[in-house]
Amino acid sequence: MKKALICFLLLFITLSQAPESYATKTTSNEQTYQKRMELYTHMESITHIPWYYFAGIDQYERSVRRARRDIPKELGVLGIYIEPQRWIGSLNKDTSDTNPLTIELLGGIGRDGNGDGKALLTDDEDVIYTVAEYLQTYGVTKEHIEIGLWNYYQRSKAVDVVVENARMYQHFGRLDLEGSSFPVPLRSNYSYRSTWGDARGWGGRRIHEGTDIFADYGVPVRSTCYGVLEIMGWNKYGGWRIGIRDINNTYHYLAHLSGFAKGLKVGQIVEPGMLIGGVGSSGYGPPGTAGKFPPHLHYGMYKDNGLNEWSFDPYPRLRSWERQDRVKRQTKK
Ligand SMILES: [Zn+2]
Predict the structure, then answer these.
(1) What is the Å distance from ligand 1's center to 179 Cα?
(2) Biggest distance spanned by C-alpha atoms of the chain
(3) 20 to 30 A from 60, CA-CA: which of 127, 190, 201, 222?
(4) Residue limits of the M23ase beta-sheet core domain (predicted)?
(5) How far is the CA of 262 from the centre of ligand 1 (A)?
(6) DSSP character for 95?
(7) Residue 153 forms part of a structural domain
(8) How far apart are CA 139 and CA 160, in angstroms?
(9) Where in the sequence is the domain holding 47, given as residue range(s)?
(10) In angstroms, what is the span from residue 236 Cα to ligand 1's centroid?
């Protein structure tokens, strides 16, 4: 009896709190997107660099920052991080320098973006203005912006991800690209369990870098996220496979497909639920090899922290996408 009462109380507390906290979170997310958009469009109006490049840079840096422990957490709404010494100048010995004149004189990139007389590394307006001014010196066409980005990051992958992000923001015309979808329809007959890190049954000594979703041959495979299709074609192990990089700079690898959706091509922008192929059993041999194992979708996820990329267990994400699809299905009824 006592136990039941506690359960009831817990349920009551959960129910009475959940809607409010959800609402608060949604509003604060909307406000954050709005503040970011204001900063990007303001920079576009002064530099003529399209807003979606600032959004692309900011989002790439946010993803890097969140994957690293050696970079402080962001204080404002922007994710852009500039190393202090780069900000104040390599010759500058005053590590707390905020004077725009001495910073510029000593080769620092830090600028005063809001006219308060200080170039502050922790001020969103100063940070975005600094990046904008840096890029503007290279020019404002697509090619020039890419050259500027290359000089800024000195890492081709960083440039690629920023440009992909920018294309996505331009395409959708908004900042909120956080939706999801489970890779196979819930009504299909499928099963999966957590197998990340297991020894691989086929093909080599590496651990199993993914979750296998077993389903019938030809069951539709959909994109789970907003992203750009980076890779599509045959791989000796993965068979017909697809690689998608999402807006959070996470790489999704889908393998052993029966084939690809009609018209799908590398560089294409995808969104949650979009058909990309079918469950198959391709792989482990030259192009066309199939049937060496039962049909399943191999789902792998990789994180990039600006320096290197590593595999992580997709199982918890798959569970959460599955749950969210179930909720969507119920609310539709
Ligand atoms: Zn697998």
Answers:
(1) 25
(2) 75
(3) 222
(4) 207-305
(5) 24
(6) T
(7) yes
(8) 18
(9) 31-172
(10) 14
Listed residue (241, 252, 245) closest to 230, CA to CA: 245
pLDDT digits (tens, 9 = 90+) for 60-113: 999 999 999 999 999 899 999 999 999 999 999 999 999 999 999 999 999 999
CB proximity list for 273: less than 8 A, separation 6 or greater: 181, 222, 223
Q: How far is the CA of 257 from the centre of ligand 1 (A)?
A: 12
Q: Is 119 found in the same domain as 225?
A: no
Cα 331 to middle of ligand 1, angstroms: 32
Q: Write down the residue that tokens 């962001």 correspond to.
A: 74
| Residue labelled with tokens 């018209």 | 263
Q: Count of domains in the chain?
A: 2
User: Among candidates 253, 239, 254, which has minimal Cα distance to 292?
Assistant: 239
The low-confidence residues of the chain, meaning pLDDT below 50, are 1, 9-20
What gap in Å lies between CA 117 and CA 141, rounded to an integer? Answer: 31
* pLDDT at residue 332, rounded to an integer: 78
The answer to whether the beta carbons of residues 220 and 297 sit under 8 Å apart is: no
Centre of ligand 1 to C-alpha 253, Å, is 10
Would you say residue 12 lies in a domain? no
User: Given this model, what pLDDT does residue 13 score?
Assistant: 46
> 70 in a domain, yes or no?
yes
d(CA 46, CA 27) in angstroms, rounded, equals 29
Residue 13 CA, ligand 1 centroid: distance in Å: 41
pTM: 0.88
Structure tokens at 313: 């267990």
95 is written with which tokens? 């590590």
